[in-house]
Amino acid sequence: MKIRVLGAGYAGVRAALDLARRFRGRRDVRISLINQDGYHQLVTELHRPAAGSVTGRALAIPLRDIFAGTGVELIRGTVTDIRWTAHQFVLDRERVFRYDRLVVALGSEPEYFSIPGMAEHSLTIRSLNSAGVIRRHIASMFREAAGLPSVRDRRPYLTVVVAGGGFTGVEFAGELADRVRGLARRTGAPAREVRIITVEAAPDILPGFDDPLVEAAVDTLVRKGVSLMMGVPIAAVERGAVVLQDGRGSRPGPSSGRGECGQTGWWNGASPRGPGGGRWSTSICSPWTARMYTLSATRRWRSIPGQDSRWLPPRSMRSARAGLRHITSGPPRPDGRCGPTREQVSVSWPP
Ligand SMILES: Cc1cc2nc3c(=O)[nH]c(=O)nc-3n(C[C@H](O)[C@H](O)[C@H](O)COP(=O)(O)OP(=O)(O)OC[C@H]3O[C@@H](n4cnc5c(N)ncnc54)[C@H](O)[C@@H]3O)c2cc1C
Known about the structure:
Radius of gyration: 22 Å
Number of domains: 2
CATH class of the largest domain: Alpha Beta
Distance between the termini: 27 Å
CATH topology of the largest domain: FAD/NAD(P)-binding domain
Order of helices and strands: EHEEHEHEEEEEEHEHHEHEHEEEEEEEHH
Bound molecules: flavin-adenine dinucleotide
């Protein structure tokens, strides 16, 4: 039996390791892990290279190190198609592979909530590459600002708008605030003119978190100099400007209700990713075929009372464990359906 795992993020790595352990010594079972890069990236730390606190390399763990001695076959390539009925997938538009069981753990894509201009004019934090783009872009804006004569001219270049006060946006805003002085020193930009503005449509940042955690996060961000605009939906993003629904802007203009900024980042929400750009089901089991398992971490992250929230494992890993139970629990049901989605949240951690 060929079990192929697509994607070497938290979910895919967890699934492949658990499968290798489960089928150790079974010559009739071959497990492969397919990923576009030769490394696993520590996505939960990406706000740090994006702000310039660490190099991207520090967050890339070679897959060959993780899977040494496990018997898992590593295949590098970009999944460009999945042919459900033929039980095949395609890498890089040309290499065709067969599977008996397929685990789809390709991660997610940013959810822009249909806000006009957001996709075109913002940078998202999704991978080591995108984190590098953000870091370089902010540094280049600071360098531009350093050469300009007046506060007014410099302002757009030194304004960073973080769209969304969810977990990632909050982490990034805080991390960047810590880096401002160093970055300003290196680029010659005046640190006191730098503005980091977090805009959140909900009344509070960190929706879904417990009140004391939210209050602590607000205090910390404010102390670091981050401006918080809460309960303010973004209506649109234009090149260099964020338009807010209440007519205000990240820097209110004289009449336009628009704020100028050198950088908008969008870090709020995600949709499961699959080849072809489609929105995929967040359930463990695909409705199309019981041979395919979709592992996804797009359910809302929540804190568990009594646990240090920083150390909660990504949901995707728990989802991987639940998916594994389906894969190893025998042949597909005749109706082509798998077990209930709620297993995703009932898997305990640590096991
Ligand atoms: C800055 C930041 C901080 C976060 N902090 C936390 C946290 O503290 N706790 C928490 O629970 N969650 C956190 N999250 C969310 C968490 O990182 C995600 O939920 C998690 O990464 C999802 O894991 P995944 O395996 O489903 O997908 P990913 O980690 O996105 O992995 C997908 C993998 O598939 C590969 N891939 C994608 N497309 C293709 C293709 N076509 N062909 C081949 N390979 C492909 C990618 O390269 C990647 O290796 C954070 C996210 C960010 C961005």
